[in-house]
Amino acid sequence: MAPMEKVCLGSRAVLWMSELPLLSHSLTYVVHHILSISSLAVVLAQGLPLRPLYLIYAGLITELCSDTTAIMKFHGWNHTNSTLFASVASINAIAMLLLRALPAVVFIPFYLLPTWSNPTLAYMAAVAFYVGWLLWLAFKQLVTLGHVRFVLARPAQIWFCESVRISIFSVFFGLAVVLAQTTTAITYCWGRNAPIGTPESRDIAIIGLGAVVAGFSGAQLANGWILAVAEKKSEGTGTKPTEAVMAQAPRQVSARPDSKIGLAEASDQSSEYASFNGRMNAGTNGSKRQITIWSCLSGISVQGGVLFSAFWVLLSHKFTIFVDTSLLLASMGLSLPLGEAVGRVGCYFGGCCGSISNKDGRRLHPALQILCASLNFLVFLCLVAALVEGSVNVRTAGVMAVLANAATRLVINPLRSDARGRTQAITNSLAFLQLLISMSLFFKLEFEAGKDAWACVALVTRLTGATFFSIWFARQAWVKVVPQLLTIWRDMTMRWPWLSQPVSFVYAFSSCVIALTFMNDTMALTGVGEVKGTGFSHAGEFLTGPWFLFCALVSGTMPVLLMSTW
């Protein structure tokens, strides 16, 4: 290291250690400083890249604002009696997001993605945890200042200045889209195993943006079809589905700052329920008019979006000559379970769907969306592991991911219903169609690989049967075992309250990261280390390019703009 680097790291370590006695009033900050010193020691001991640390440490200039607010608070100033304090605290919160969290997110594809090993994986996990910590700190400060309020209801929302309401569902949906696009890009580069030129990068970005727009259109059209079928079935009952929506939709929350709302209840029965046709609603205070282009409670057909996105990619080869369409489709298929895993967490907060109810209206199987998310994420991890080990290629992994996603829907849907109280009979038809298409494609891939037709049929049958059995077993375990485990967990937290404190999770996470750092490099042993400089390095170059960054930014913000109240 150069002398300036030694001064930078040494002064930071000395400063952190000297501050520890002064932070004895806050266990959280003590843990934060200990982990910061430990992370520096691990990076130096393992010889990991130091430039990311310099980037993160440079962002610590924001501590000028935080120290200023601490001094002002010591002298009795706060956001209620001092405009200057409120301004400095607001600048501090925004600076933490722009100067500390954002650079930490950006450097991962630059420095860590091209080189895969256990230490770099631990490095990325630690940085991700650091970003989460910063987001939490900034959010707490903005909440204290009254700029932001988190309304924990269904649908859960983040209110900005009591006027703009960002749906948590839309945030998770946007995150799911970005993660799916990122996974698709990495998988495509892995299968391509060649540098991605500017024309190809541009075409991939065009296809990605078009797939998002087509997916939204397909989701809306499919949901409209479901509504039309429901209207037809309800003609003889005298109750329109739209009336059932208003009666069964989760109640909106009031604008009272002191309202404390759980996920199972709301404080206000007045409905501010905007459908996706852009109907204007009166604001909470009656003086403003707000609009929700597409309320999450109006429903969204993920399968309709997937089908339209796939059709768009198939049609795109007519004007994007630099892209391997079949490889891109397979890469999209592999990213489907990951996107749905994240999106289902948003569904849990959105209230658009849940489990079936009994006669009293109580959900029989709580947190069924979390089960769907867990199963899809497990499918994604298993297929990525098989892809890394060389057991399957990209095209086979993509088809298997689509098949497993369809099987998950068919097994879980009998336990599900949406916000209108309808079961998932119609979506089962789309899932069955998805299953047939994926089985046909898997048969085609195996037959083209030189296997006998009957052998291919047997292989497809075994794969489908094993997938259905595994998902059915997981469903039964969730229904029978999880409630008992939750009861045991409640008893444990009552006996040992520290288990439910966030700092316990910090300890557990830090222990795992440190253990992973000093473990044998299993990634290199399984073959990932052999592809350094090929597929993953090309992915890093592509992900940091302007075309992908623009595509990810637009795609991630589109759901937030469409599904939030303005």
Would you kindly provide a brief summary of this structure?
Helix content is about 65%, strand content about 5%. By secondary structure, the chain is mainly alpha-helical. The chain folds into 2 domains: about 5-160, no CATH class; about 165-240 and about 295-480 and about 520-565, no CATH class.
Which term fits the overall shape? Answer: globular
User: What's the number of helices?
Assistant: 20
Main β-sheet: number of strands, strand sense, barrel status?
A: 3 strands, antiparallel
Helix content: 55-70%
Using only CA atoms, what is the Rg? 25 Å
Number of domains: 2
Keywords: Membrane, Transmembrane, Transmembrane helix
Transmembrane segments: 84-108, 120-139, 159-184, 204-230, 291-315, 367-388, 424-443, 455-475, 496-519, 539-562
GO molecular function: phosphatidylglycerol-prolipoprotein diacylglyceryl transferase activity
InterPro entries: Lgt
How is the topology of this model organized?
Elements: H1 3-19, H2 27-46, H3 51-58, H4 63-74, H5 83-112, H6 118-145, E1 148-151, E2 157-160, E3 164-167, H7 168-192, H8 198-233, H9 241-248, E4 280-282, E5 289-291, H10 302-315, H11 325-350, E6 353-355, H12 368-389, H13 394-412, E7 416-418, H14 425-448, H15 453-480, H16 482-495, H17 502-518, H18 522-525, H19 535-543, H20 546-563
Antiparallel strand pairs: 1-2, 2-3, 4-5, 6-7
Task: Describe the overall structure.
This protein is 67% helix and 4% strand. The chain has two domains: 3-159, no CATH class; 165-238 and 297-480 and 520-563, no CATH class. The protein has 566 residues and is mainly alpha-helical. The strands form three sheets. A three-stranded antiparallel sheet has the order 1-2-3. It has a two-stranded antiparallel ribbon with strand order 4-5. It has a two-stranded antiparallel sheet with strand order 6-7. The radius of gyration is 25 Å and the shape is globular. It starts with a helix and ends with a helix. The model is unreliable at 241-287 and 523-534 (pLDDT under 50). It is built from 20 helices and seven strands.
